[in-house]
Amino acid sequence: MDALKSWVEQVWENRKLLLESSVKKAIEEVIEALDKGRLRVAEPAGGEWVVNDWVKKAVILYFPLRKMETVEVGMFEFHDKIPLKKDYAKQGVRVVPHALARYGAFLAKGVVLMPSYINIGAYVGSNTMVDTWATVGSCAQIGSHVHLSGGVGIGGVLEPVQAAPVIIEDNCFIGSRSIIVEGVRIGEEAVLGANVVITQSTKIIDVSGAKPKEYKAYVPPRSVVIPGSYSKKFPAGSFNVPCALIIGKRKASTDLKTSLNQALREYHVSV
């Protein structure tokens, strides 16, 4: 991997090297390693997440190496540079028509894709459900035993290369039509209700205690989150601005297999 990293860094500074066959092979090796899960754009280390920005650089450099191709599947036609993943049965992944995952995205054993979309560089952990019309953007990191409900939008990021991707840690439940973008991190076993939108600028306010506590781009583990709003003054007057409210914690006594929906029901929150 050190040799591949060195190649990628050299090419990043000098794009003329893309013409060399050895460079092309090195970048293709990185994308294959991403596709097979041997490499990740970001990975946990000591309780934090480390971004491998050189891997993101390789993804960006992969595009100019590819030529546009027309692919026909029955009456459907696609015209793109990046091929689709294959051999789902061998990988132990269930894929329902019309789910699509690009080559260079990793899907672990037990993943279920309802009609949805997974972009290059993404990582989806074991036994995770990607429900109907959910999208997982470039380089997003989704943990194991996660449920991305219908219509969830997980944002992607390629540039700037040092920017962290969206990270959804293990055993999370993300409610229908929620949107998580701009490198936001959702801690383990957190539960988001329907229509929660979190960006880098969204206030995440814990209102479960005597005093509010505010977070930025991070939802602590086991939090139960719903959409909310707060009043903000503008030159034209005061208006309500969206925020995310942490209204409690998942209870340790609740069985993990049922607590995702049950945690929301206990707080009378829609899924």
Give the topology.
Elements: H1 2-13, H2 21-36, E1 42-45, E2 48-51, H3 53-65, E3 69-73, E4 76-80, H4 88-91, E5 94-95, E6 100-101, E7 106-107, E8 112-113, E9 117-118, E10 123-124, E11 129-130, E12 135-136, E13 141-142, E14 147-148, E15 153-154, E16 167-168, E17 173-174, E18 179-180, E19 185-186, E20 191-192, E21 197-198, E22 203-206, E23 213-216, E24 218-219, E25 223-234, E26 237-249, H5 256-266
Parallel strand pairs: 5-8, 6-9, 7-10, 8-11, 9-12, 10-13, 11-14, 12-15, 13-16, 14-17, 15-18, 16-19, 17-20, 18-21, 19-24, 20-25, 22-26
Antiparallel strand pairs: 1-2, 3-4, 22-23, 25-26
Helix pairs in contact: 1-2, 1-3, 2-3
Quick tags:
271 residues; alpha/beta; Tetrahydrodipicolinate-N-succinyltransferase, Chain A, domain 1; UDP N-Acetylglucosamine Acyltransferase, domain 1; 6-stranded parallel sheet; 32% strand; globular
Condensed summary:
This protein has helices at residues 2-13, 21-36, 53-65, 88-91, 256-266; strands at 42-45, 48-51, 69-73, 76-80, 94-95, 100-101, 106-107, 112-113, 117-118, 123-124, 129-130, 135-136, 141-142, 147-148, 153-154, 167-168, 173-174, 179-180, 185-186, 191-192, 197-198, 203-206, 213-216, 218-219, 223-234, 237-249. It is α/β, with parallel strands linked by helices. The chain starts with a helix and ends in a 5-residue tail after the last helix.
